[in-house]
User: Fold this.
Amino acid sequence: MRASHFLILLAAALGMSACSIWKGSVTGTAEVTPQPAAVVQKPQPQVSPLRRKAVSLLEKKNYRQAIELMNGRYQNGLEREYVLAINGHLEVGADAFSLGDYPSAAQTFKVVLNAYPPEPSLRERLSHDQKKIKILLDACTNRMMELGLDEYRRGRLESAIGKWKGVLAISPGHHEAKKSIDTATVQLQALQNLKSR
Assistant:
């Protein structure tokens, strides 16, 4: 290396040193303060208003509203939330069934059947298949029919009719419920006519 190059490098090094010392004397420190490297933040993915609302409903365990909100629109990246809503609503129905609240259980199972996804990839993630849900729904309506029959045998015709109307609310084409309502209604009118005489 030539002497002139060496002198230039030495002068540059001394100059940098002097700057550091001068900066330290101005700031009152003898050290060079390192500057933090610029932090590059990754852009956060945008959360759609639909997802935000669905997640809020799921957190509140309001599965039916979540299903209604997402039904038909869950293909927009909401598959996970839709599966959670369906499975959560199935649990609600199972709980109602075990407590003997057959009308609530039946309504729950009906909502799930109506919202059952056609995609095999989603169906395999659900806790019950359609056949099992249909069996549970039928068990609910059968119990409701039996409870109506119990009321009918005790002479509580209005209560019996109310229970059978509950069956029709779930299954409008339920032939046995229609027939039972017609029979009990005729008998109730006959009793009311006798009392009014």
